[in-house]
Specification:
Blueprint: E1 2-4, H1 16-24, E2 30-33, H2 36-61, H3 64-112, H4 120-128, H5 134-160, H6 167-176, H7 186-204, H8 212-230, H9 240-247, H10 255-279, H11 293-330
Antiparallel strand pairs: 1-2
Helix pairs in contact: 2-3, 3-5, 3-8, 3-9, 4-5, 4-10, 5-6, 5-9, 7-8, 7-10, 9-10
């Protein structure tokens, strides 16, 4: 459903109507969408396409030695900018609406953004596993922290496109009066974010399906469930850069508590998830063994014994035949 444009917004800045006029050369017939569902789609789609275009341009234009930093930047920026969509969804449809949106959106994003990391925890875990050195990981994490600032600006820009009647006002409020999501003592927030990351990343390391899109989809169902469980307590970001983009220095939460809850907690949880994955698996990942090595050695020995016995029997039969032939010739 779309509202007829009898009175355009008088706010300054570029709106979707200005873009429509520049592209098509005529005024749009509507001022705002009146269905929150349509606005939700436009917010997520705008964020995804803006980051994806920049991501693909980086693949083509950015020199090889710094390309991975650009890919990390725009992939992380996409996931953080989706936070503006998450907030809008929760306003109208609560956690149920969030769940229905975040799973397909994140799944599509992972399938589209094939290279780079979308979360600082990805680089941190690569270091812990020995896949990347500390000097490789440190600048990549720094770039992902910078992407939080880019995502914040992009999210406000999308809100200011004025798809829905109150989005510009919401953007102005966010820009001047951000709020803290930490609604419990910070030490409990640390434990909650740590536990959430530990469990979610442990499940994420398990094979859910041999079909990759389905495997990703199922794992994001688990992630969304964890977020819904703790969103009213800490925001349950499980994404340090996103948490800082939306709540660093906000409300009455001191900066040191923010760092402990949203950075130290997830980093510790990522470490624990690796240790947990080494000891516990949801499905058997052991390689198929037809028979143990010792049994194979025994079977090979038995086979050789059988061959030797057979050859010995053949020798006996041949000796008997020779004796019979000799007797016949004598007779």
């Amino acid at each position: 459903m779309i509202q007829a444009a009898d009175a355009y917004s008088t706010r300054e800045g570029t709106t979707w109507r200005d873009v429509w006029t520049m592209v098509l050369g005529s005024d749009p017939p509507y001022s705002h969408v009146t269905s929150p569902i349509t606005a939700i789609f436009l917010i997520y789609f705008s964020a995804m396409m803006a980051c994806y275009i920049l991501y693909k341009l980086s693949e083509v234009l950015v020199p090889g030695f710094i390309k991975i930093y650009a890919l990390d930047f725009f992939k992380t920026m996409a996931f953080i900018t989706y936070g503006f969509g998450h907030g809008f969804v929760r306003k109208y449809y609560g956690n149920f609406g969030y769940f229905l949106c975040v799973v397909p959106v994140n799944t599509i994003t992972v399938l589209l953004f094939t290279h780079g990391e979308g979360n600082v925890l990805g680089n941190w875990k690569a270091f812990l596993k020995g896949q990347r050195s500390f000097l490789q990981v440190l600048p990549r994490i720094f770039v992902q922290i910078l992407s939080a600032a880019g995502a914040w600006r992009l999210g406000l820009f999308i809100y200011n496109l004025d798809f829905f009647w109150h989005l510009p006002e919401t953007a102005a409020t966010l820009a001047t009066d951000c709020k803290s999501f930490l609604n419990i003592p910070f030490y409990l927030g640390f434990l909650l974010e740590m536990t959430g990351v530990t469990y979610d990343h442990w499940v994420g390391s398990q094979p859910m399906s041999s079909h990759r899109p389905l495997d990703i989809f199922l794992k994001f169902i688990n992630t969304a469930s964890v977020v819904c469980f703790g969103s009213h307590l800490t925001g349950m970001f499980m994404h340090p850069s996103m948490a800082s983009a939306f709540s660093f220095g906000c409300g009455s939460t001191p900066i040191y508590q923010h760092i402990i809850v949203y950075w130290l907690g997830p980093f510790t949880g990522a470490f624990l998830s690796i240790k947990l994955s080494e000891r516990f698996v949801l499905t058997s990942q052991k390689s198929k063994k037809v028979e143990p090595p010792k049994e194979k050695e025994k079977s090979s020995q038995n086979d050789s014994k059988k061959k030797n016995t057979k050859s010995a029997n053949d020798d006996k039969i041949s000796d008997t035949e020779r004796k019979v032939r000799r007797r016949k010739t004598k007779n």
